[in-house]
Amino acid sequence: MIDISRPLSVTTAPWPEDTALSIDWTLHLSRGDNVSLSTIRLSTHLGTHADAPAHYMPDGHTMSGFSLLAFVGPVQVIDVVGCDSVTAQVLKEQSVLSSPRVLVRSLAEVVPEEFVDDYPPLAPDGAEALVNSGVRLYGTDAPSVDPVDCPGMDAHRILGSAGLPILENLDLTHVPPGKYDLVALPMRLVEAEAAPVRAVLLPAGSLALES
Predict the structure, then answer these.
(1) Residue range 23-30: average pLDDT?
(2) Distance CA 77, CA 54 (A)
């Protein structure tokens, strides 16, 4: 099992001006309480998470609109480090468009304490190619599938309009490209536009599930 989730701590860097993780102790053994009890506050987009269409489309559904089956099953990991963007041509060259799920390593290094704004985004034609090929989920180790300065959220909208969940802020640093089984279940935040995810990869064929 390969854990491809980023660790969450109070030092994990959020998207600029978004909410970092904070932990408050309602009760604590060190204060003489009989248990320790904490309260956390964080953005639903901090660390490894899934985006729902409600994040970027006014009429988009929330996390409750996804089938869990989209987050579990065969997946292909590809490496695009050094590319300017993930275009349809790049996806074709990587022979990934026949896979039901696609995870993209775009960063040479992942440092959870640092926000990275220079990464290969998913090009609109790449998003269209994924949708047309029948992909059920797209994930990236970048903080977004779109560039930081993309107000139109083009790739988000193309994927979301086709019902694809989007995983962001993965850690694929030590994952060789290839085929695996993915388990990336989001928290059951019914009314939220995103949710934290614990994502792991298993050897291909480990799960007795359809694609």
Answers:
(1) 97
(2) 27
Cα–Cα distance, 57 to 63 (Å, whole number): 13
- The tens digit of pLDDT for each residue in 123-163 reads 999 999 999 999 999 999 999 999 999 889 999 999 999 99
> Could you tell me which of 11, 101, 2 has the C-alpha nearest to residue 47?
11
Quickly state the pLDDT bin for 98 (edges 50, 70, 90).
very high
Active-site hit among 45, 49, 55, 156: 55
- Map tokens 């930081």 to a residue: 148
Q: Find, among 172, 169, 182, the residue nearest to 46 by Cα.
A: 169
Cβ proximity of 131 and 158 under 8 Å:
yes
CA–CA gap between residue 127 and residue 88 (Å, rounded): 8
H helix intervals, the chain: 88-93, 124-133, 154-161
Backbone angles phi, psi at 64, to 5 degrees: -70, -15
Q: What is the share, in percent, of the chain residues with pLDDT greater than 90? A: 97
45 is catalytic: no
